[in-house]
């Protein structure tokens, strides 16, 4: 299972969380990566944790101001990027451009979507993976795998209909090892989560608990 921990703009210590991600990843069968804010990418990548960007823009080198260039994100040490997160929505053409920019720079991609219908569109953009996250469950602590298992199963089917090689992650409210197991049982290849780790009193313990049943 792939566990991608999005730190959003939570006021956690990104380096401490990254060190925990690195150590728990080393000691488990799961693949764990961390997505800090853009300004923290380099410091986080220096820990040796697999580091992802939260976003890249559909741009190339040139006359762009205030954007996130895929090559810049790679220079900072990122291995992959989220695209079209529910808190960083893009128009379809821009999501497509962002996937192309990420590919050009050699970044792995996860395109996010709200529901199974959008997952089909996201998979058609040709990313490495898609992630289904019902926005109303984000940050609630109520796992999508429990509150709305059909969403996960339908997303897995929708992605497979477009491209059987595209992995499907699910996210929103995931915080325990049981949630991760439930996600796997529904056909998901991983989970995307944030508050369960970034807002935990002890992020390392939270990560250990996530991988414990795997
Ligand atoms: O990117 C992860 C996400 O939006 C889910 O957030 O806090 O419900 O795990 P959370």
Automatic annotation (TrEMBL):
Enzyme class, first EC level, given as a word: isomerase
Subcellular location, principal: cytoplasm
GO CC, alphabetical: cytoplasm
Gene Ontology biological process terms from the UniProt entry: gluconeogenesis; glycolytic process
Cytoplasm listed as a keyword: yes
Active site, renumbered: 85 (electrophile), 133 (proton acceptor)
Record keyword Membrane present: no
Swiss-Prot/TrEMBL catalytic activity: D-glyceraldehyde 3-phosphate = dihydroxyacetone phosphate
Pfam families, A to Z: TIM
Pathway(s) it belongs to: Carbohydrate biosynthesis; gluconeogenesis; Carbohydrate degradation; glycolysis; D-glyceraldehyde 3-phosphate from glycerone phosphate: step 1/1
CDD domains according to UniProt: TIM
PROSITE patterns: TIM_1, TIM_2
Cell compartments where the protein resides: Cytoplasm
This enzyme's EC code(s): 5.3.1.1
Keywords (A to Z) from UniProt: Cytoplasm, Gluconeogenesis, Glycolysis, Isomerase
Sites where the protein binds substrate: 6-8, 138, 173, 194-195
Molecular function per GO: triose-phosphate isomerase activity
Role: Involved in the gluconeogenesis. Catalyzes stereospecifically the conversion of dihydroxyacetone phosphate (DHAP) to D-glyceraldehyde-3-phosphate (G3P).
Family the entry assigns: Belongs to the triosephosphate isomerase family.
Quaternary structure note: Homotetramer; dimer of dimers.
Protein name: Triosephosphate isomerase
